[in-house]
Design a protein that fits this description.
By secondary structure, the protein is mainly alpha-helical. It is built from 14 helices and 14 strands. It has helices spanning 3-27, 53-69, 76-92, 122-138, 141-159, 180-193, 198-203, 205-216, 239-243, 247-264, 267-285, 314-331, 334-350, 383-400; strands at 39-40, 46-48, 51-52, 107-108, 114-116, 176-178, 219-220, 225-226, 229-231, 244-245, 297-298, 312-313, 362-363, 369-371. A 3-stranded antiparallel beta sheet has the order 3-4-5. A 3-stranded antiparallel beta sheet has the order 12-13-14.
Length: 403
């Protein structure tokens, strides 16, 4: 693949990232109450003032990461937005009770009153991401301590006693290893240990290894499928739950594993990550008729019960771009770069909105825009800018070493 094409790709991705950052800086910050609006229409107008803690935390993290690592985003308005989002989170996100001081709400009113709490760990996960990254930008050690304290609570919920999440074990429920949990914890391990002193790295070493093993349990059917849910001992579950495939999640797990394997020079894990979590989900998840990645699939070919299964969503394509480019950067195998450009051509010809900026998130199977808003309860300032940011940095590294 020519250096010229890679350079064109880098310039395009760079321009896209600038566009996306500008869109959210212009339309998202709540100057009155702090935090961010995420329910934003195609034209940039806010259509709902509810604030989702997942997206608040993700946006703080993304602003801080851009500010900290890319010179052109070291701008006062980005730092100010990150600090405002962090202050809103710290003031309102935690819904402490007599039994737990670490549980976070899922959804808040515009002025920070809790509306809904989920019986999962993900609001807390994105709170940790935000606090740790903001501590790196501001030098506020208390935020880092708070992130690590909340992480200890998450580890307890996941590995010891989940009852604090308010989710009782019902008699008919099979204990399940959902890939989202070890994936997210591995992401947090990488966040909390990046560039930290050896004491912190050692503190999370065992957890990182546990997360990797839990993710690898999702390789099923003699290595021919990645299943989203398995039993706690790594066996296939019966019914729709056990047959579910989520190609985007598998691809995201793939590049998490690639990062982990690169840090440890683990060539075997690198091969597994590429073969099973990058190549395989693309192979099974790519729509050969219309292009793009399906959202959900049934490993036995039944129609998935998720009504949106055949839609093409923004975030799986973001994960695929990162996964294939990272896999190519580590191995230089041309077929991985070919896959990257296949995803690249589909993604950039369907999702970006050339007229109003940012990306559409939800397409029909045929690739037509199904929902034209730019942000909602789940789509915020995260998957698109994270993908563009990471791809730009990988391309920088590739092109710097082009000889």
């Amino acid at each position: 693949m020519s250096v010229v094409k890679l350079e064109e790709c880098r310039q395009h991705i760079r321009a896209q990232l600038d566009n996306v950052v500008d869109f959210w800086l212009k339309h998202s910050l709540d100057a009155v109450h702090g935090g961010f609006f995420t329910c934003i229409g195609r034209d940039g107008k806010v259509y709902d003032e509810l604030k989702y803690v997942w997206l608040q935390g993700r946006q703080v993290w993304m602003y801080c990461r851009l500010y900290r690592t890319m010179d052109r985003f070291r701008r006062p308005e980005i730092l100010a937005a990150a600090k405002a989002g962090g202050a809103f989170l710290r003031k309102f996100a935690r819904v402490s009770s007599s039994s737990c001081q670490w549980k976070c709400a899922f959804c808040l009113t515009r002025d920070g009153k809790a509306i809904k709490v989920q019986r999962t760990i993900f609001s807390e996960c994105f709170y940790i991401l935000a606090m740790d990254e903001l501590s790196r930008v501001t030098g506020d050690k208390d935020m880092q301590i708070e992130a690590e304290q909340m992480m200890e609570q998450l580890i307890y919920w996941v590995q010891v006693d989940p009852s604090g999440l308010g989710r009782p074990q019902l008699p008919g429920e099979a204990p399940t290893n959902s890939m989202a949990i070890p994936m997210m914890l591995l992401c947090l391990v990488q966040q909390l240990t990046e560039g930290r002193e050896q004491e912190v790295v050692q503190k999370y070493r065992e957890l990182g290894s546990w997360c990797v093993q839990q993710i690898l349990h999702h390789i099923q059917r003699a290595g021919t499928a990645i299943l989203e849910n398995v039993s706690v001992d790594g066996a296939e579950l019966p019914g729709c739950l056990g047959r579910l495939q989520n190609p985007g999640h598998a691809l995201e797990a793939g590049w998490f594993l690639l990062q982990y394997s690169a840090e440890r020079a683990d060539e075997e894990l690198q091969r597994t990550a590429i073969d099973k979590f990058v190549e395989l989900p693309h192979q099974c998840g790519w729509d050969k008729e219309h292009g793009g990645l399906f959202y959900f699939l049934d490993v036995d070919g039944h129609c998935p019960t998720q009504l949106e299964w055949s839609m093409k969503l923004w975030w799986p394509h973001c994960e695929a771009l990162i996964a294939f480019l990272m896999a190519y950067s580590q191995t230089k195998k041309p077929e991985l770069l070919e896959r990257f450009f296949q995803v690249y051509e589909y993604t950039f010809s369907h999702f970006p909105d050339a007229e109003s900026g940012e990306w559409f998130g939800y397409l029909t199977q045929e690739g037509k825009v199904a929902l034209d808003f730019k942000g909602g309860p789940f789509k915020g300032f995260f998957h698109v800018p994270r993908c563009l940011y990471m791809c730009e940095r990988i391309l920088d590294d590739l092109l710097d070493k082009k000889d």
